[in-house]
Amino acid sequence: MSVLLWLRNDLRLADNPALQRAANLAQSNNLPLIIAFIEDAPNPSAKKTFTLPTVASPQWGNVSQGLKLGGASRWWLHHSLASFEKSVHALGQTLLLAQGNPVEHLLAWVATYGVRHVVTSYGVEPHHKNQVQALEKALAQYSGGAVWLETVPPNYWLPLDAIHNNQGGVFKVYSPFYKKVLTQLPGIEVLPAPTQLPPPPQGLQAAALAQLQLLPARPWDSVMTQWWQPGEVGAQKRTTNFLAEACGAYHTERDRPDHTGTSRLSPHLHFGEISPRQIVRAMVDAGLLAWPIEKPTKGAEHFFKEVMWREFAGYVLHHFPHTDWAPFRPEFSEFPFVTDTEALQRWREGQTGYPIVDAGMRELWATGWMHNRVRMIVASFLVKHLQQDWRHGAEWFWDTLVDADLASNSLGWQWSAGCGVDAAPYFRVFNPILQGKKFDPLGDYVRRWVPELAKLPADWIHEPWMAPPLTLYQAGMTLGDAYPAPMVDHPTARKKALAAFAQLRGTAPADERALSRDA
Description:
The protein is an alpha/beta fold. It has helices spanning 17-28, 71-89, 102-113, 126-143, 174-182, 224-227, 232-245, 250-253, 266-270, 276-285, 298-319, 341-349, 355-367, 372-385, 390-400, 406-417, 432-439, 444-449, 469-474, 490-505, 512-516; strands at residues 2-7, 33-40, 95-100, 115-121, 148-152. The protein has a 5-stranded parallel sheet, with helices on both faces. Strand 4, helix 4 and strand 5 form a beta-alpha-beta unit.
């Protein structure tokens, strides 16, 4: 007999309730422990009502949303598994790896190794919940109740089922959600990493990590290792460095893509290499937060709110599972989106003619990550300026982001499109010129990722089409040749977007104050 831990990300030793529970069960019953990770295969029977256009891409393939990992996530997962495998080997354990249908693999292991207890986390993603339910049903049919399935909460800090508004319902707006959270904060005691683990059963046949073939067939990822250190050690280092160097000024620096002012912890959180509780605990230990929270520094308060925004994303998907791929506001299903595969491809490749947009898309391609302020800018541009369905953007982000998290990705794109739960005004259209000038005032971010514009003065770098001919000549560029002219005119595109939103809502175009306001 044995105990089986089915990991759903959570690739860490410290503060891992599922690992601790499985290890305690094995130790108290004097049973061997199996630690397993299964990379889901896409489900060909899963159908979405929305059909993505086929757009040729040189290196990235299409994605089955929520079922098949994107290319950047697969790269991260490979290195995260390698790190975790090394950690459990040091404690005398083996990481059992597989690929395909999780329920089929788990039932086979239950039969082969006489498993009596299965421990896993239940997750917030709809397909994760469905898999756990399918496993519970399959185990009952197989064993008649002799095999026990136990679930523990996913890698979120808050008890997502226990947060209610004053009417006992579910929050749909972040600000009141956050205020309520402050009145019922859970503890910040962190589970220590185990110093030993029960051994695996004799004869355990574990596949090599390379057999999962997570790395790209054609290497594009050589630069990725310059930016990231996947794994628990990398997560701890990044947390320590951020809290020491940047958290204090987070409230002023977090919107500046030309500076290193954000934590970049999102991929570590997504793959469970660190828990939100560990981050909050580290903030308290570093003297950035008092506990319970009272008069934090502005930087720490703003960063804590970002940690809570991730919690809110999980909360929304948990309570409204259809928002993984459908708008929360059903009327937006009738929005008159434009089908233009050429425009979509230019957006993907960073060839829109708007420097801050193009810089963000190229940063994404090169590093698997994009600054959050720029994510909002490029999302607004795709949905509002190009009137493309937000799910085109969500699909591309899913495939290219190392922190591609279904809850956060869906919430972020629906916020940008104005069709989600949070109360962002639908008529907010980011002006990519003003956004660039405000948050990249010297043009350093654009120069880094759009080298064609590197010699342009800061006065013109965010709108090169307005630069005097002599300035363009001195910068060694011809607009429309070295760098494209804008693919759309901002004022015209903005008015078209507002008119389309107004038509959808059955109202007159947004009021004059909205029309005259440029974000």
